[in-house]
Write a structure and sequence with these properties.
Number of helices: 8
Radius of gyration: 17 Å
Low-confidence stretches: none
Strand content: under 5%
Number of domains: 1
Structural class: mainly alpha
CATH class: Mainly Alpha
Order of helices and strands: HHHHHHHH
Shape: elongated
Number of strands: 0
CATH superfamily: Glycerol uptake facilitator protein
CATH architecture: Up-down Bundle
Mean pLDDT: 96
Largest sheet: none
Distance between the termini: 18 Å
Amino acid sequence: VTLALAYSGSFSWELVPGYCLAQLAGAFTGAIVVWFHYYLHWKVTHNPAEKLAVFCTGPAIRSNVHNLISEIIGTAVLILGLLTIGANKFTEGLNPLVVGLLIVSIGVSLGGTTGFAVNPARDLGPRLAHFILPIAGKGSSDWAYAWVPVVGPVIGGVMGAWLYQLLF
């Protein structure tokens, strides 16, 4: 969202690095809270994939090309929707509800293929936490797939902002 807003001219490019780092730090910190919350579960859950799924996204069917396309589409729809919602004054008081419904709609319709990261920090911060935290039997953090939920939302965000500028 931050990159898309900067691309569309709604946000200063100078602020982008700081906001991206803050989002990553927030996602990492949130993952640590989740780790504490599930602390007793780590010992009784033996499947490493289930442990990883608590932290980050993963594909239902592993196909990097198709998973990348899924992330691009989901993020483009999110950005197009956010920019449209933000531009309309008649929804101003309802924006949080409308944005929430947009995110739920994306999750229900497009999220099944990848878990819909739609923001690189949503996957990367928790994946880093999974990598660093001492979780018994956790297995791999699946770095071979980690680029998909990072690159897809970046491309999709720019595409969504571009589509908005093209259409409106």
